[in-house]
Amino acid sequence: MNKFKRLLSCGLIATMLLGMTACDEGSAPSSGSGVNSGGQSGDAIGPGTSSTSTSATTDPDDNAADDSEAKDVSTGNYTPSGNAGTVKFLGYYDINADQKGEEQCKVFATETYGGTIEWISASSGAAYYEKLATLVASDGSPDLLTFEPLAFPYGVSKNMFEPLDEYIDIEDPLWDDMKPMIDEYEFEGKHYYVPHRVVTKYALNYNRQTVEDAGLEDPYNLYVAGNWTWDAWREMMIDFCNQADDNIGFYATSTMLEAFVNSTGTSLIDVAPDGTISNNIASADVTRSIEYLAELGRNGLLYPADHPHGDWVSPQVWAPVSDKILFLGMEPEWTYIAATEQIQNPTGVENDIFDTPSDFAFVPFPRDPDTDEYYMCSNTFGYMIPKGAKNIDGAVDFIYCNRLFETDQGVIDQLRNDHIAPAKLTYTAGKYEGMQKWQITWDAQVYDHWREMCDSSKFTFIIDDMYGFGDELSTPLTDAMYNSTFGEDSWTQLSEEISPVIQAIIDEYK
Questions:
Q1: pTM (2 decimals)?
Q2: Any idea which architecture 13-200+379-438 has in CATH?
């Protein structure tokens, strides 16, 4: 199985270091602090990290212009300049057409902000950082980019980004509910990353019709009743797998196992605000959780690596076989959208299914029975300003625009309605001009649960720093978790073998 996407080769890291530190060698920090969960997943750029996702079935013309308009967003106590100008955004997707950026870009383009986002295209993965390094070294820095796991603590420690403290007042009530998360990324007294929202990272996705047909209790009902635990999850999978030889309880890649480990309330690698880095891989909680997963594997409840569906079961692959794979461990928003789109939005508008919620749903990873609360493997979303950016003020305006969009109650209410009862949109250009544009219609309960999973009053968020040091640390760690879960080696043995490798990398940051 292709367990992990390689982020950066040693040679590329060296190249990036030369490019970044050449701008300001004298002030390059030497140590880091804070806690990260990056955009998301161990695959620093991919389904868990990207803010955009497109179904493999989607016709390119489905993204043609439509007749939607900018939302009315209050500026609160923040006064935009009204002349934000052109903000150059480096990304492997166009934020102007992305589901987490399109509407904010429309607001940013109004007279209130007077801004425009210019997309500088970059490939994902290693090429993304290579292009960033080249632009910074040549005095052509972009003004903005999305946060990615390698940015913290690695990128911040190498002086790749501008500190934001003189531009953003994180003590302002506007940032109150994000303040704990913002402070997790503090580095030597400065904040280089001010996320504007908490986002889901992984969940257990399922098909409610499959659950009903199997005579099982809906996992969401177990969650609401406080009974969604490791053991309830296991018993449900045993019941399902006993009903047919080809039924599978749970699919996960090596990078998704982190979510189950984090349900104990423990992160694998933790960078504390004072710069202390904790290596927790041999802790009792981590060992107990991985051994529990290994027992599930021995009982035949997990997706086998040699299964004919392949070694990467995306939401699009899973959607038509969700009657056979009970749980898919993956980012829930992306999975819900992509799986629904796979069923309802095949190539060409003529075959679309409109105005109908799908049967897909999700729940958080189950609660550790040794704890009294749900610990959520979570993530944040936001933007960073690269070293040498020319339009910092415009970039800051866009960061505030996103935060105000996130917190405006009118927008929150309107977005909910847009999801569960979207107004019809009509194509205004392209070969589908005049025809209705497909939009997902969310089930109201599923939508509300998705928002609840980002609520700090409902969950204790765990943000693991394991991906902030590069693949030299994360790859052996995720591979070891996977091999212990699906192989014959014990976690105690494997953790002892890789611990010196991990510790050597951590020690470089002291």
A1: 0.82
A2: 3-Layer(aba) Sandwich (3.40)
